Description:
By secondary structure, the chain is α+β, with helices and mostly antiparallel strands. The chain is 47% helix and 21% strand. Keywords: Cell cycle, Cell division, Chaperone, Cytoplasm, Isomerase, Rotamase.
Amino acid sequence: MNITETSTDGLKREFQVVISAKDIEEKVNGKLEELRRTVQLPGFRPGKVPVTVIKQRYHGGVLSEVLEDAIATSSRQALSERGLRVALQPKIEVESYEENGDLTYKMAVELLPDVEPGDFGAIELEKPVADVTDESVADALSKLASAHSTQVAITEERGAENGDIALIDFAGSVDGEALPGMDGKDYPLELGAGRFVPGFEEQLIGAKAGEHRSINVTFPADYPHERLKGAATVFEVDVKELRKNVPAEVNDDLAKEFGMESLEKMRDAVRDRIKSEYANLSRLRVKRQLLDKLAEAHAFEVPVGMVDIEFEGIWARLQEELKNGTAGEDAAKSEDDLKTEYRAIAERRVRLGLLLSEVGRRNNIQVTQDEVNRALINEARRFPGQERQVFEFFKNNQQALENLRAPIFEDKVVDHILELAKVSEKTVTVEELTKDEDETAEAA
């Protein structure tokens, strides 16, 4: 076997590998001989099948197996002899091969860069922290009470207002034709919740119990039902009753609804939950600061192939957001600008990933099986009633399991770096801590 490095360009390497016809023939003959000793064919005693018969029956399959194995073995050898760490699977291209001749192939690889972590002790970070106030606890309890509200009839003589629940019978028609699914009886419609066609709920404002109204609306142009796309529609609506939500009282009885002994115990539990949420937000914000500083301080070359894969994932998600109308400001940008912006984000992510991986390797940071199991249990809890299927999915999908392991590893490495960095705390308001919460989580 002859291995020649034919190209060097940054992290990219190309090799030409030649495996001699003699080596191939020896391996083929060896495997055929193994088959001759073990194969059983009608008319021949075990181990007595003529070589010519074995070659006739099995030569093609054995040759393919030998060539595949030779490429795999020689490519690993080429990298191992040179101490090269590849970022992705090598790309193999057979350049020439004829039976009874040499096999020549080209191997292109991208290498992992040499990463030299900086001095983490020189990093200065400011961790925002917020106190859990009595007001925030009271607000949380109020929301829990609202979640356990009951509906009561409105007895005062007045028209419907936003927030009221109108108990209605309705029937809709398009050009006088009643279509399936456009009618209902005793439907409790919360006014202002935006659950019906745009304009429907607004036209019920001011209606009183016992009143009949004709409501004219136009369905959106992108409505899923083909017949209703952009259709002008008339709904005949009878308002049978007006109701309102009355929150439960914040007392010991409410606490018992949530399995607590008393309101005081419930108040303590809510305070602890809010405290935990604030702590998570504080960590996300200091983690974002840390990653920003790490990105600024490390500028090594990254494998283009890894950036391509990361960018493709980002771009696919962006396309889905653009399609669903949830892309925000990105919807107004040109495709070229978006590709430039998100390519830079992909490169940053790959660079940070390689840096954190190297820090973890140097400090022997490991993810234990118990940690993976806990993450798996938490994932299964997201799908009540389907826990068994979730466990089976991860059991049979190594990549999915790795997707659980990766964020645990990242957090452990980040915690290691934070222990070395200079982190000071700054007291902020709850509003400052929770500002742009989703954006902070995504960036981190």
